[in-house]
Amino acid sequence: MLLEKLKKHRFLFEELVKRDFKKKYKRTMLGVAWSMLAPLLTLLVMAVVFTQFFGRSMPHYIIYMFAGNLVFFYYREATSGGMRALVDNAGIFTKVNVPKYIFLLSKSVSSFINFLLTIVIFFIFVAIDGIAFSFKFFLLVYPVVCLLVFNIGLGLILSALYLFFKDTQYLYDLFTLMVMYLSAIFYPIDSLSDYLQQLFYLNPVFVYINYFRTIVIHNTIPSLGYHLLCAFYALLVLLIGGYIYKKHNYKFLYYV
Amino acid sequence: MIVELRNVSVRYILGDFKDIGIKEFIIRKIMGNYQVREFWAVKDVTFSLERGDLLGIIGTNGAGKSTLLKVISGIMVPTKGQAIVKGSVAALLELGAGFDGDLTVKENTYLRGAMLGYTRRFMDEKYDEIIAFAELEEFQDRPFKQLSSGMKSRLGFSIACLVKPDILILDEVLAVGDAAFRKKSEQKMMEIINSGVTTILVSHSLDQVRRMCNKVLWLDKGKQMAFGETKEVCDKYEQFLATAKHGPKMSQKK
After folding, report:
1. Rounded to 5 degrees, what angle do the CA atoms B87, B93, B94 make?
2. What is the pTM of this model?
């Protein structure tokens, strides 16, 4: 039934995606390249600063950090952007009868495309760093899809929250900062106790980052349990987000 | 019956979440001094329409007319009561909804068309016709924000008048543009209406309502004052307006 609805609004969905793209890149010089530059620049700075502290003891440290940046930046961009999806389009859904989640989905497309482009650059770095190509790399489709679903689910929750509570944006900025520090982007966790290492798995962003590292750096396929964990986080937020939209759909209009 | 409203009421809640933010909300809930105010924009509205009816909704500002339209078009769900609508609805509540200043006129036309439920193929076919009706041939690739407000309204109307729904809802949209365009647009709308589309029209022009509508709904501050034949309800409304003007003065005299 959801797919039927999407088919019906396909034209609108396409036009919204086009609109978001044009608005984002119309006046910029570098255009799409700029969105890929952000994780790369951060990577550069981190490489210069942190190799001193951690780089000596870890092989492929640059790739280790890049995997962290790659996933984290996508997570942050998709969710922060998605958070505004409803409020920014209030002018439309208060006057036109369209399903409201369509705005979040169209916003998700541009951040996803950026992510894919950054992954391409990631693999260029992987090759430069001397890591051999392996067919296991194709498994990376799995965390990519999980991340997409995860970000959409989180976007649904945040966009509803932001509509109801205006200070959500501020609080969420703080939250993502904490997530950044707790995702082991630029530090290794091997030297921590087992118990502390396990705690990291409570952070879905870390779970996805680690999947990338396990395949690319350690050339190992994560366990089935790990795969289930990835899916669990993604589906959990998607269900919560979907539930909020379903239940409070009619309320959105009152808060705009 | 193609449209049926039963005891429809819409309540807005003021003074909570959005204004105060999460932190304040939680604190107030804990402290027990969380208060909200209620505002009933629409109270207990009941009426029904047959296919081909042309309903005019009249009332002073703040009567709840626009809110009621949103309920009928399915954009809003009523707090109480039911709105049963059988058929496809085209709600023209704001001709310029969704227009984006940064995009070109052409891009905006397609976007707006998408919002009205047209298909891409339909837009490709009718695009030239739309631009011609709005008299904007030279401005197609200009950024939308460069248009005057009259031009924007003309474009909005031009895109909207290609709708072919079962039920058409118009919120004061027949008053855009200069006299020549208004004549053109009213004519075009009458074409659609006369083809058997059930229409609901909000208008401040009693003249227009008397001319066009066969049924009228009169709302005042959310309450249903009258519903029925055009002449009857319009006469009542005019009487009401007249006494409202003279009322306070007369009581002072006594």
Report:
1. 140
2. 0.85
